[in-house]
Amino acid sequence: MRALYLGLAALLATSGGAAAAEQACHVGLYRFEDGQVIDVSFTAQDKLRWQRIDGRTGVIQPAEGAARISHGGWTDEADGVRISLPPCTERAITVDGQVARKVDFEVTDTRFKGAGGIELAGRLVLPKGAGKVPIVVIGHGSEDTSALKLYDEQRLYPSQGVGAFLFDKRGTGGSGGKYSQDFELLAQDVAAAVAEARRLAGARAGRVGLEGASQGGWIIPLAATKTQVDFVLVDYGLTIDPWAENLAETVQDLEAKGWGPADVAKGREMGAAASNLVASKFGEAEMAAWDALRTKYQAEPWYKDLEGEFTGMLAPHAAPQAKAAALAHPIFHANTTWRHDSLGVLRRVKAPVLWIIAGSDTVAPPEQTEKDLETLIKEGRDIRAAVFPGTDHGIRQFTVKDGERAFSRYADGYTALRIDWIKGAPLKAVYGQATFIGR
Prior knowledge:
By secondary structure, this protein is α+β, with helices and mostly antiparallel strands. Helices cover 31% and strands 26% of the residues.
């Protein structure tokens, strides 16, 4: 399970515990004497992650006393960064000998009604002051963890003069309801969040818009058709729907294993059949088609390399057993919107859209999305599309060792680009290695 179900592992992880309680006081945004900032946030595993605006990041390793080392990015390798976490009463940390002091923001926690009257837990974070500021309402990807606990944008953005409103997705964190991947339902929740953000911000609300990553690429544009917003920002989302995502990943994975066009074409058939199985909730005709293809291909050498979003999970099984395996997986009960007309939705969005793509995304294969966005741009739609080459899902840079990707940092320019878009500033010619398409 990958893009659509990226948060599934976190479902099994604890979100509380003594370790989290001891470290919670260190979570925050810190500013150095030269004005640069560093954010400290929780990971889903209750460790502490630091991040800079330029994309450098690492995980602070547990240690006795205040002095800690950092493992770079998402690796197990020390990156040379030394961090000291003094007693929380000092409201400061030391990074490589430089002291950074905690910054205060105007924080308002709230509860508001989403679709169907479900009560959602939200938070508005504004820079200190009385003037108007742009505000971004941050939606969700597929994660089933608490945005209020984990999203570092709630501090990074206000440190750069941008307000942020975020909320726990229904069925997660402090929100009520049942976890869902029903795009229409989730888009209604996001639209309700926009109204709540405006209500809380009052006279301080300037530009108000939306941001969402991964699965948010389907939800955020849909939400923008349900409420008035000034901008839309999508991070590493797809214009193809979840049905096609599994197919695209199945093909991409076989190509990555070195299989040629003839074998990949057969794998494409299996990927489409797997998507049909799941989207139909294992209809009789789809189960019969699956068994026929499986009988035809299962002895071929490429078959063992089937992966995709869920093709590989189903591939070892005849249809009845595949159904049992799928239905035992809680994510298959999330009412996922398997078919979604992204292009139709985007043609209805009135606000300017910025779509940021990971050029080497193995979780959300970007090829068709790039083509679709270029088509929309040529139609005259108010869309910008930026590609960060050499990055995977999350706009994360990586190195390859023994065939595996080791993620080292977020791409330089990624956060700066997002902040400029939210502020409505003219986009610069250079944001790290990003290239703009369709212009």
